[in-house]
Amino acid sequence: MRKRKSNEFLTEVELEFMTELWKLGEGSVRDILARLPPERKLAYTSCATIMRILDEKNFVDSRKEGKTFIYSPRLTKDTYQSRFLRNLSDKLFDGTPASLVARLVDEYDLSKQDLEEIRALLDRRRTDDAT
Amino acid sequence: MTLLNGMFDVYIDLNITLAVTAIVWLTAKLVLARTGKRLAFTLQLGLLNGLFAIIVLSPAIVAAYHYMLAAEVLPARLPVNLADYAVAQYLRGGIGIPAEDFQSLLGLRSRMSESILAMEPGFGKGVALLLIAGFTYFGLRLAVSFARLHRMLSGCHLWRRNGRLKLLLSDRALVPFSARGGYYHYVVIPSDLLAEPDDLGLVLRHEFQHLRRGDVTWEVALECLRPMLFWNPFYYVWKSEVERLRELACDQKVAEDARVDLRSYCLCLLRAAQAGLKKRQELMRHDRSGSVASVALIEVNDRLLRRSPAQKLRRRVEALMEPNRLHPHWGIVGLAVLPMVAVVFLAALAIQKPADWSQDRLMLSAIVNLERLQVINTFGQRPLR
Questions:
Q1: Would the CB atoms of B169 and A49 count as touching at under 8 Å?
Q2: Comparing B372 with A81, which gets the higher pLDDT?
Q3: Is A37 inside a domain boundary?
Q4: Range name among A56-70, B97-111, B174-188, B284-298 with the lowest pLDDT average
Q5: Which residues of A touch B (CB under 8 A)?
């Protein structure tokens, strides 16, 4: 069995591959390659290497079907989003999620609907905490 | 002479030889620049590495010379010792200072060495403590750098293996770099580069060139000497020259390949620098790879008293755009290098402590005693010293 490397986060290219795999549910290297924009001109071997790294980093599971490896995500997109945001909050915003949200609200041109959704989320969270 | 005294003498000689060789190198560089001759970078780097090997081997060469003198293979009266030469000049009237002062000047190095080794209060103790602190600090720093490099390499993903070469992929490497262990050679590539097949090919060419030329081994050797030579400014001059020429020589070699488009290569360097700087901002300081004992495609970390990454990149691109540099025949190079090597050898021999007493030294001692007697006879009192 290959040695598992512990790394909690994805690089840009790995994230691109994982995004496609999350959409696919499961698939082979060729399936993922087919979904990438044609201008990427990625070699099959490079894609296979990236998938192998994802396997070593515990982001995907692999099983062999004939001569092909079929990959499926080990964690959901939501789980990874939470992990990434927590890390961002800890490292860049000194562990204060409020600063992260404040920056988000300041920097992004949020529509009235977006703001309403955020307000609704906060209200729901407050109600849950109260009960 | 105790073993410690002998080792300290070798150490001091090594530092002086390095200084002399660096001055010889910088002079040769200045002469070439003045005459408008632009040697190929690969040739310059070869010369620099060759001279460095001579510096490191100089104690052994000097020991071999003395052994041959003792075995009477060489004539015994070869005047290559600076102190002996100075005494001979003094006796011929070429140096106009009192004999006692001259003798004191000759013994200055011995007295300073004794003072440092005996840790005499004041100068001796101060220098000894500074040396011990420097050895310890730079030695520990070297050990930490090797440990950090080892940790970085073990955190990488193995991509390919061919004999003693391992290609590794890293999430944390700022830029591609080459390194080596006791047996294996490593080329570490940031894993995002897999998605850039054109750049990947150029980067691999560059890094393989470093391995072929043995640049990583020279880098490790230079870094291992840092704890010993930390106080010598010529060490830093030398290292900076090696680092500059290493990348320029490697670029030149890659650019010579007919399959490599120069513009694409320059853009590849630019993209690598951009990606490295971006990643440098993203990663925490403690996450960065150790730059010691490895050879990076392009340096993106700012270093004290060094050119900025942007300046270095500009210099490399400008060098790539220059028309062909001179690559003279090896015979001509050999003839030009011979005087440089001779100067280094002579310097290494000339700075040695003179062996025992010579007739000239006895004569100098007699003059010192006569001067003292003269003082006593003239003033009817004992000399002050």
A1: yes
A2: A81
A3: yes
A4: B284-298
A5: 5, 7, 9, 11-14, 16, 40-43, 46, 49-50, 52-53, 56, 91
CATH number of the domain at A35, please: 1.10.10.10
Residues β-bridged to residue B160 = B167
What is the band of B77 on the pLDDT scale with cuts at 50, 70, 90?
A: low
pLDDT, one tens digit per residue, over A58-117 is 999 999 988 899 999 999 999 999 999 888 888 888 888 888 888 888 888 888 888 888
pLDDT confidence of residue A1: 45
Residue A114 lies in a domain: no
Contact list in A for residue B191 (CB cut-off 8 A) is: 11, 13-14, 50, 53
- Residue B76 φ/ψ, nearest 5 degrees: -70, -20
* Average pLDDT, integer, range B13-40: 87
| Mean pLDDT lowest among A39-43, B209-213, B298-302, B357-361 | B298-302
* Domain contains A105: no
Q: Residue A9: give the domain boundaries.
A: 1-92
Distance from CA of B299 to the nearest CA of A (A): 21
Task: Print burial letters for B139-155: b (CB count within 10 Å at least 16), e (below 16).
Answer: eebbeebbebbeebbeb
pLDDT of B262 strictly over 60: yes
Contact yes or no for B169 and A41 at CB 8 A: no
Measured distance CA(B177)–CA(B295) in Å, rounded: 5
Show residues of chain B in contact with A52, CB under 8 Å.
157
Question: Would you say B371 and B379 are in contact if contact means Cβ atoms under 8 Å apart?
Answer: no
Residue B379: its pLDDT value, please?
A: 64
Find, among B370, B49, B18, the residue nearest to B217 by Cα: B49
Secondary structure letter of residue A2 according to DSSP: P
Instruction: Look at residue A122 and tell me if it is in a domain.
Output: no
